[in-house]
Amino acid sequence: xxxxxxxxxxxxxxxxxxxxxxxxxxxxxxxxxxxxxxxxxxxxxxxxxxxxxxxxxxxxxxxxxxxxxxxxxxxxxxxxxxxxxxxxxxxxxxxxxxxxxxxxxxxxxxxxxxxxxxxxxxxxxxxxxxxxxxxxxxxxxxxxxxxxxxxxxxxxxxxxxxxxxxxxxxxxxxxxxxxxxxxxxxxxxxxxxxxxxxxxxxxxxxxxxxxxxxxxxxxxxxxxxxxxxxxxxxxxxxxxxxxxxxxxxxxxxxxxxxxxxxxxxxxxxxxxxxxxxxxxxxxxxxxxxxxxxxxxxxxxxxxxxxxxxxxxxxxxxxxxxxxxxxxxxxxxxxxxxxxxxxxxxxxxxxxxxxxxxxxxxxxxxxxxxxxxxxxxxxxxxxxxxxxxxxxxxxxxxxxxxxxxxxxxxxxxxxxx
Length: 416
Prior knowledge:
The chain has helices at about 25-35, 105-110, 240-250, 350-355; strands spanning about 1-5, 10-15, 20, 40-45, 55-60, 65-70, 75-80, 85-90, 95, 120, 125-130, 135-140, 165-170, 195-205, 205-220, 225-235, 255, 280-285, 290-295, 300-305, 325-330, 340-345, 365, 380-385, 390-395, 400-405. Mean pLDDT is about 85; it is low at about 410-415. By secondary structure, it is mainly beta. It starts with a strand and ends in an 11-residue tail after the last strand.
């Protein structure tokens, strides 16, 4: 049985690990992987058809805990303990819930002190006792309902009949209903950079590079050792060297060498069937949701891949979501003043087609599989080419990834 410390408006955990509000989904999964000996049977719950409309949930069924993540920013929003009989809980080092300590009304009062009168939900027959960043639910029998108006403590119960907590929630702010996922706490940075926004830069010929707003750890005024959140702006352009990209973004999470290019068959270049004597390579920045492809011969940037990290995609949880902004324009003259459209990770592909006023060419069907697992339970995706970019689209019409490549220079063939 897990023995966990409750920190209102912040976290649930122990000396080895903690689930902190604002924690990215991937970090919570990593904790569960490391604790597989003590935390078992974890469910991942999401909506396949509407992944942005429903919360992303990790359900620890054997421990009675739900970790509820905001579907847009994919950070931890609510920590819910829905079965207190499966876990030990303490506050300031003292247990208020264990096999020997029942979380009754009196015990909660003793452990957490006074608070505002609770709120009664007549439909669910539940009384909510709220502290800042923490709430407890008590099931109340209907015969006690007429007396709830003076607060939970005013209800008179027979000896031994005092209700016990049926649910506990940790969140930020004063209202569970209105809570939002907070910014990522500094304790979750672990020396990495995280993207606030990524803007695709364009000129009249097409994309030229990326403008990236990075969130990093940094020292602030006052104590030298005190960390602060800082934001930096970096420009990564086509043609930048591998050394320049490393100096801007730091060392990549991984370097991947391409063994083959399965999309080359779709290139109009006559050189597409010629064997390559060297391999292009990617810098994979998992926390940025970004891949940078370098030419094998020049070692300079030739492509960017921006990841949206939707559940139900083959690469889900490998990357963090890249919060990109991609401006596109109509391919023909238009009388409409607003002839620019901005694509984000939350844009559906049909809205892009509606803006362009024309059907995009038929897609290339992409079937993913690995050497260890030849089946892909998530099915195929579809790749559409548009304005020097390739959009990988899932069956639910959401964009899974965007590949941005450099327009051809005059007189130079495309061997991509």
